[in-house]
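For reference, the entry.
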Amino acid sequence: MILTGQEIIKNTKDGKIKIDPFHEGCATTNSYDLKLGTNYIRYTSEILDPKTESQFISSPIPPEGLTLDKGDFILASSEEKVGSDHFVPLIHAKSGIARLGLFIHVTADLIDIGSYGNVTFQLYATLPVTIYPGMAIAQATFWVPKGEIKLYDGKYQGSDGPQPSRIHMDKT
């Protein structure tokens, strides 16, 4: 079951959903709009290897915008910190952004119950597109889980800004 916008507002006021900063006007019919933060990460390693820590640079997104070329991939983050101990947040692109050819969270859209922090967006440009800090770029939906809840306590807990992959930390 998905929460409506009014239920997102109610559960945020009740503390069951955490969104900071929270603006009621960002609640839509069944989601909450997320804004693009001010920084992004670009990997600098020639080959990304999941067994080693990847090298990257972090840069600000200029107020006048950052133009991504076709095929560019960067990591950016939400302006908001988001999470819940009661609902499962899912991240989706705003449809208008997707229609410009910018893929956001085509994979890895599930936020674990108990995770709280900035959402890292995986941005892949299929066409040249400009992004701006503070623009509505994604939306979070909140789903009711079924079964016993075990809260997330993993390597991305408390994310502040965009986070590079930490898959190299997994025990495989």
